[in-house]
Amino acid sequence: MAQTLITIRDAREADAQGIAEVHDSAWRHAYSGIIPGQELERMIARRGPAWWHSAIVRGSRLLVLDFDELIGGYASYGRNRVPAMAYGGEIFELYISPEFQGLGFGRRMFSAARKDLVEHGYSSFLVWALADNEGAVAFYRHLGGKIVRRAYERFGTELRERVAFAFE
User: Fold this and answer.
1) What are the φ/ψ torsions at residue 31 (nearest 5 degrees)?
2) C-alpha angle 144/145/150, rounded to 5°?
3) SS3 34
4) Average of pLDDT values for 42-68?
5) List of residues 6+ apart from 120 with CB closer than 8 A
6) What is the pTM of this model?
7) Strand order in the sheet with 146-155
8) Is the pLDDT of residue 35 over 90?
9) Which end of the chain, N or C, is surrounded by fewer C-beta atoms within 10 Å?
10) At residue 3, does pLDDT exceed 90?
11) Where are the chain's structural domains?
12) At the topology level of CATH, where does 6-167 sit?
């Protein structure tokens, strides 16, 4: 019987390529038809393996979902980037490769990031999602997030609403 080890762990330098691949496929899956095509392509192109390698070397809080050396997802998180909001931490990104979505791995990644945030003194935190990304909005609502702010983000000439989910 073959067994595959599935772990959630801190990212290592050797994971940069795999994280970039997840970023590419997950963003295309999540944002096609939401973020204008040319803008989406630019955003994906900026986050290649060198960008992720640099983030890992700088010590960014970055977890990966490791399927026996195949990266199937990632989460990045840290101190809240909007100090005017009364939440200490923030999950900046949480993405799972499309082929691994719907299997509970996103929830496991969220829990691991949340645990690490709490261990670093951030008992409350935010997660931002584009309002048109119905999957992400449903996911964060299902996890108990409450919408506490709405804002707009520009993608080329178009504006998209984003929402902040708070977790205590």
Assistant:
1) -115, -5
2) 160
3) coil
4) 97
5) 89
6) 0.95
7) 6-10, 61-67, 70-79, 89-96, 125-130, 158-167, 146-155
8) yes
9) N
10) no
11) 6-167
12) Aminopeptidase (3.40.630)
